[in-house]
Structure formats: structure tokens, C-alpha cells
Amino acid sequence: MPVEERSNSNRMANLELLRIVSMLMVIMLHLFTQGKVLQNVTEGVNYYFSWIMEAVCYTSVNSYMLISGYFMWRTKFKWKRIVSLYAQILFYTIVLAGITFAVMPSRLSAINFSKLLPVFSGNNWYISIYFVLYFLTPILNSAIRSIKPSTHRSVIGILFLAFSIMPSVFFNADPFLVNAGYSVLWFMYVYLVAAYIGKNNIQLRKSVTIIMCIMLVLVPMSKFFMDLYHLVTGDYDIQGTFFYTYNSSPVAIASVGLFAVFLGIKIKNEKVAKFINKVAKTTFGVFYIHTFFLYRDFIWEKLGSTKFVGSPVFIPYCFGIVIGVFIACSIIDFLRAKLFKLIRLDKLIDKISHAIEVRIRLE
User: Fold this and answer.
1) CA-wise closest residue to 130 among 182, 88, 87, 174
2) What is this structure's pTM?
3) Which of 24, 55, 70, 74 has its CA nearest to residue 260?
4) Region at 254 (left for phi over 0; alpha for psi -120 to 50; beta for the rest)
5) pLDDT in tens, 266-294
6) Which 3 state secondary structure label does DSSP give 175?
7) Helix or strand or coil: residue 47?
8) Per-residue pLDDT tens for 145-195?
9) Distance (Å, rounded) from C-alpha 292 to C-alpha 167?
């Protein structure tokens, strides 16, 4: 996921560590959903583990946007950032599509080919939303810098009621088109929350950790309670996954709690901090490589995502495969960065960015 708002200072390695942890949780989410684990695990310890981990990992995407908002509210819009990110996406799209079509010619179709245009084809919802949000940052940042803290708090509170509490209470009713958190509206809100924490140097208390744990417990407990309700009554009108959304109140609160925990971590060892920052640079590549739409279902199948759902080794398998996917994709992105440096692509990006800025100023 996008990482251009990164700080290279050691004191910010704590949030870079959160970026890495969040990416590991994203991979776990995809193992459970794209890998069809949740569809196939039906009972026993593995069932409860899967739904508990699903709840924990749902905080990951909000955490990414919290990191972005925490840094980006004070920065200026730069075309170089967006051009550089798009160049990376375009590179991966061309390379990964070429490999996929060569290995699996059956995937070559008019529909798949039409989905190859990065960002605009909508085959990766997070990237599309992020691009739109980034173009809105000049407006958001201007408002954030000028708004009073009391007004900022009020806006956050009112929007939390509208975007999170109301859908949670009314079983995912969506009067404001938040789309379970898969929307620009929701990530604008998360951005505002993070900016408030950063701008006012809010030091969240340790009690937030306890609240986070309580919120996380509520999510899977709601699922298990509804399982029992369905079994007893036979009424399946209300699904047990209504809290499993990015904008549900428990997930939103737990995400801020997780952010607070990492914000309070002090990483004093310079070598450790540098290593964390170096690995964090690859997280966008990790995200894009393992979620590429042409082969993600095939990859999870080959990795045996459903093979062990009834096995005693299921839990270690999940952690092992998540870490393995992260390491493999991280190495690939590290090599991609070396290639970009070798061919001096940054020079071309500078020229393109400058040309865009000049054209806009002339108009």
C-alpha cells in the first residue's frame, strides 16, 4: 500500500512497524477470503481461530489510513508522489500480466485485458480510493490546518455517529453510502481522525489498549452469538458478520487503539529502526503483488489455502503462509526498487512531474 508519506527518522520506525504488521494482517484477511478459508472452515478450534483472526485483521486497512493521515495533513500536494506511485503500479501490472498470460493463456480475455489499466479499471478498490483521496488532500489539509480543535472533535464525533454507529446499530444500514468502509467517504473520515491526533499531539492513554481488546472481542462474539441464534431459532435474516466491516464501531475503535499502541512504542536501536524502515518500503509491492486480480485465486489454491482447514496444523499453516508470502513479495519489491534505481527511472518521473506542474500553472 502507498508509503510515500513515510518518515525516515528512527522515532517514526514505530509506525513503520505498524505498517508491516498491518500488511501481514492484510495478507491474513486475503488468505481467509480470497483463499476461501472462511467458506470451508465450519467447526472446531480452526473455526473459532479463523473468525477471531478475521476480526483482529480487520483493523489493518484503517491502520494504514491512520498512518497516512497522521503524516500527510501537514504536507503539500506533490505530483511526483502520485506519478512515482503510478509508475510502480504500471510496472507491476505489465510484468505480472505478461507472466500470467504466458503461464495461463486461458486468462487472456477481452474482459481481463480491459481491467489492466491501473487505478481507473477498479480491479483494486484500495488503490483507486487512495488515488482519489490523495487528490482531495489539498482541500482536506487546508481545512485541517485552519479548523479549531473543538470543531475538529465535533466533526469527528458527528461523522462517527453517521458513518459508524448508525450502520452498526442498524445491521449495516447505509444511508450515507459508506459501503462498509469501501469508500472514499470512510477513508476521508479516518484521515481526519489521524490528522486530529497528529495536529494536536494527542497522547492516547494506555487504557485505550484495554478498550481496543474489548472492541476486538465484540466482533467475533457477535458472530458466535448469531451462530447460536441461527441454530436455536432457524432465523437467518440477520447475518452474524454485521460487525465485520471496516466502518463498524468496534473495528473503528480498535483500529485507533492499535494505532495508539504503536504510537507509544519507542524504538531506540538505530539498526533495528533502519531495518524496519527498509522493510516497510516494500509493503506496497507486497500488497500489489499478492492481490493482482489475474492470479490471486490461483495462487491461494496452489498454496493450499483450504487444504488444512480441518487439520491440527491449520493455525501454524496460516501464520507460516502469511509470513512466507510477505517475505517473497518483499524480496521481489526490493529487487524492483534496485531495477528502478539502475535504469534511473526517478529522473524520468521528475521530468514527467515537472511537465505536469508547468502545464497546470500555465492553464
Assistant:
1) 182
2) 0.93
3) 70
4) alpha
5) 898 999 999 999 999 999 999 999 999 99
6) coil
7) helix
8) 999 999 999 999 999 999 999 988 887 788 898 999 999 999 999 999 999
9) 30
Tally the C-alpha atoms within 13 A of residue 115's C-alpha that lie toward its C-beta.
Answer: 14
User: Which amino acid, one-letter code, is at 22?
Assistant: S
Rounded Cα distance, 84 and 47, in Å: 42
Q: How many whole angstroms separate alpha carbon 164 and alpha carbon 247?
A: 5
Q: Are 241 and 247 in contact (CB under 8 A)?
A: no
What's the distance, CA 237 to chain centroid? 30
| Alpha-carbon separation of residue 82 from 3, 246, 332 (angstroms) | 11, 25, 21
Cell digits for 321?
503462509
**How far, in Å, CA of 61 to CA of 67, rounded?**
10
The per-residue pLDDT of the chain, averaged, comes to 90
* Statement: residue 363 has pLDDT above 90: no
Contact call for residues 163 and 186 (beta carbons, < 8 A): yes
Rounded Cα distance between 139 and 105, Å, is 45
**What length is written for the chain?**
363
In sequence order, the 6+-apart residues with CB closer than 8 A to the CB of 116 are: 93, 97, 123
Report d(CA 357, CA 130) in Å as an integer. Answer: 21
Which pLDDT score, from 0 to 100, does residue 52 have?
95
User: Looking at residue 362, what is its pLDDT?
Assistant: 56
User: Which of the 8 DSSP states describes residue 135?
Assistant: H
Give me the DSSP letters along 286-346: HHHHHH-TTTHHHHHHHTTTTTTTTSTTHHHHHHHHHHHHHHHHHHHHHHHHHHHHHTTHH
What is the Cα–Cα distance from 52 to 357, expressed in whole angstroms?
A: 48
- Has residue 324 got a pLDDT over 90? yes
Q: What does the alpha-carbon distance between residue 86 and residue 64 come to, in Å, rounded to a whole number?
A: 18
Measured between alpha carbons, how far is 362 from 359 in angstroms, rounded to an integer?
5
